[in-house]
Design goal:
- With 292 residues, the protein is mainly α.
- It has a domain of 200 residues.
- 77% of the residues lie in helices and 0% in strands.
């Protein structure tokens, strides 16, 4: 019971921290690809230190069997980060995050095709209503003029597509678990992001001021390294339903940060759309009993 309580606290904290990601990235004046690369490098270094302290060894035999899956999932993770950071630049944090949380809906839609899972009535209802929510968000992007937020929303959906890809690829990875899998995916992301950054202008960290450096370290070490450790450490102690419910602290905090701290606007139809996406996705996930 004590372990479960601690796991709930760790998962809740990790979701709250994830929800503040946009607040810190707004203060890092580098390109999205460069920010994604720095995030992966800092998190990888921190997780490498974690393995040394915990004296954990990586099973390289298992890695060989699933090397391509780990590589492709790392590539998808890197692209996902770039698109999400770009979304933050082109719309409000709340709109980017709510669009991004369409990812579970995409997974629900694709799973029947990949895993021969049948869509039941509940899943169909959740998909339809979540799509209605998305239409409300896209159709009423008038916070700063008609159409002003559409590029950011579409980038958020692009990030959702690649995040859904990461989730689906992870379903095929059977021999590498938890934090080790994430560490290897970070390394794969670095392999892909490094040449991308070099080919699109290189590194420009010298332009960061003190505030920018602090925010970069927080995003890389805390939002990614430490928080991923907390997240995966808590999963093994909790049921799938508990994970699904607590995961919605992330978008909730993101909306609060966007509206109350940054003063970014959100219309009533957009808010209703966000509630539809999150609410029906949560209802769908509450039927799951397997940890994610």
């Amino acid at each position: 019971m004590k372990k479960r309580k601690q796991a709930k606290i760790m998962l809740s904290l990790s979701m709250i921290i994830f929800g503040t990601l946009g607040l810190f990235t707004r203060n890092i004046a580098v390109a999205s690809g460069e920010l994604a690369l720095c995030r992966a490098v800092l998190a990888s270094l921190l997780l490498a230190g974690y393995f040394v302290v915990k004296r954990q060894k990586i099973d390289f035999k298992a890695i060989k069997k699933e090397l391509l899956l780990l590589l492709f999932s790392g590539i998808a993770m890197g692209i996902n980060w770039i698109l999400l950071f770009e979304a933050y630049k082109h719309t409000t944090i709340s709109m980017a995050t709510l669009s991004y949380y369409f990812a579970p809906v995409l997974v629900t839609l694709v799973c029947p095709l990949l895993f021969r899972e049948k869509l039941n009535k509940k899943q169909i209802i959740c998909f339809v209503m979540s799509t209605v929510g998305l239409v409300l968000i896209i159709g009423f992007e008038g916070v700063a003029g008609k159409g002003a937020h559409l590029p950011g929303i579409m980038l958020g959906l692009g990030a959702a597509l690649f995040y859904a890809t990461v989730i689906l690829l992870n379903k095929f990875i059977k021999n590498v678990e938890g934090i080790q899998r994430t560490f290897l995916q970070f390394l794969a992301a670095i392999i892909v992001l490094a040449p991308y950054v070099i080919g699109t202008g290189g590194m420009h960290l010298q332009i960061l001021d003190g505030k920018g450096w602090i925010c970069l370290l927080i995003v890389g070490l805390i939002h990614t390294g430490i928080t991923y450790c907390m997240y995966f450490s808590s999963l093994k102690e909790l049921r799938g339903q508990e994970v699904a419910i607590l995961s919605y602290l992330d978008p909730l905090v993101a909306v609060v940060v966007s509206v109350l701290i940054l003063g970014e606007g959100i219309t009533l139809p957009q808010l209703i759309g966000g509630i539809l996406i999150l609410g029906f996705t949560l209802w769908n996930e509450k039927g799951e009993n397997v940890d994610k």
